[in-house]
Amino acid sequence: MGLELYLDLVSQPCRAVYIFARKNNIPFEFKRVELLKGQHRTEEFKKVNMLMTVPALKDDSFTLAESIAILLYLAGKFKTADHWYPAELQKRARVDEYLSWQHTTIRAKGSEMFLHKVLMPIITGKPIPAEKLQSLTGELNVVLNQFEEKFLQDKPFIAGTEISLADLLALEEIMQPLGVGHDPFEGRPKLAAWRKRVEGALGQQLCQEAHQLLLNPSTLSADKFTPELLEGLKQKFLK
Q1: DSSP 8-state code for residue 215
Q2: Which segments constitute the GST N-terminal domain (predicted)?
Q3: Which of 10, 11, 109, 232 has the fewest C-beta atoms under 10 angstroms from its C-beta?
Q4: 74 φ, ψ to 5°?
């Protein structure tokens, strides 16, 4: 059967896995799981990942969940270039440091901005309140400042002079608000220059391909959501 990757490219960790596999010429079968249609909650998908999340990996009879675990598995199995997850102790520690930090900071705040801006108008029929948007923007700016000052500093990339898994995951998380019209790179020349370097190392065509769904407004229209998913989101966001 070979390697199968279960992905939805609206999801930032899915895009990271997709880009990494494509960039490193890793052969895989793309199994699209449409989150807005609830396909991650089917009995068929639960056989691959009982957590009902994407990305997910199936390598013959072996299955694996969680994007970082999947990326490290692919890097190890396919012996990708050292710069992705360096063997040198301190460079690897820099990558691990970012990977440990990102979940409750860059990912959480970028996702919150994305979800509120796309879901609140669908759920309530009204735009997101100005005060809520201001609050979300402020929280996102705090973690972006931390990213620039702590992790990026004056280096080309997070772990030094070459791209790593940390840069790939960071780019996809920071890109997420662009899908709802909020540009986190605006007014941040250091961050914008870093983005250009990361996309240059990955390849512009591959990045455009991976970001096509995210940056297409029709992807997130109300008619794309199943009634069951909308009801669940209402209970979560309007409680």
Answers
A1: T
A2: 1-82
A3: 232
A4: -65, -40
